[in-house]
Design the sequence.
């Protein structure tokens, strides 16, 4: 619970005649709870940010080493920090701020499903395709479009409306859940449609590029940094 604390803080700034008081806007959210129930410092049933960030970072480092054993220590640490912060932020931002936010650390760490690491991995996959194809923007003609391509294009077209709704309702979860749905559509496209070497290669690459741009922008709006490689 943080509403009373923030009200007291803003009142304190008012009494102090702080010049910055009117620049501060706090958007209240419901309590953050564990899957087992309410956090309690008295019983020790809580999660401390510092400890958990270290736990996530260590886990992410292990996952990166599995995928890229030749990557140097500095590179591993940099990626692991970005992944761990994405896991923390996304796990909370994807939930409705008007309801109790359940923080499940096992779920937050998962590289599959509706998680920060999954979205980062999907973005890195798209950028990998563009690198392999040495993508450059060119004119092209579309002869045929598959159903998955049409669905991905439709999902991309929803982005401006999604951002408008998130702003109007002060609900970052609208953008977070859109990013996940968009990533699912992209992965369906990735598994069903050949891009590099196909007759419609340039069109496919344009789709991949558009997806990576929209996903990166969505995550940046949530304060989440992306990775070109995972």
Sequence:
């Amino acid at each position: 619970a943080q509403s009373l604390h923030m009200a007291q803080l803003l009142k304190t700034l008012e009494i102090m005649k702080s010049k910055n008081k009117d620049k501060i806007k706090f958007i209240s959210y419901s309590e953050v709870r564990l899957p087992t129930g309410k956090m309690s410092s008295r019983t020790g049933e809580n999660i401390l940010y510092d400890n958990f960030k270290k736990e996530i970072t260590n886990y992410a480092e292990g996952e990166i080493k599995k995928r890229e054993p030749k990557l140097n220590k500095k590179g591993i640490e940099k990626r692991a920090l970005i992944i761990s912060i994405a896991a923390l932020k996304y796990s909370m931002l994807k939930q409705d701020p008007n309801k109790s936010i359940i923080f499940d650390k096992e779920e937050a760490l998962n590289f599959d499903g509706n998680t920060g690491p999954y979205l980062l991995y999907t973005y890195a996959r798209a950028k990998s395709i563009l690198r392999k194809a040495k993508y450059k923007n060119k004119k092209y003609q579309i002869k045929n479009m598959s159903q998955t391509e049409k669905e991905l294009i439709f999902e991309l077209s929803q982005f401006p409306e999604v951002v408008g709704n998130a702003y109007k309702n002060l609900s970052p979860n609208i953008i977070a859940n859109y990013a996940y749905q968009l990533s699912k559509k992209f992965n369906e496209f990735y598994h069903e449609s050949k891009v590099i070497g196909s007759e419609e290669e340039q069109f496919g690459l344009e789709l991949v590029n558009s997806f990576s741009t929209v996903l990166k922008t969505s995550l940046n709006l949530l304060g989440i940094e992306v990775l070109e490689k995972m």
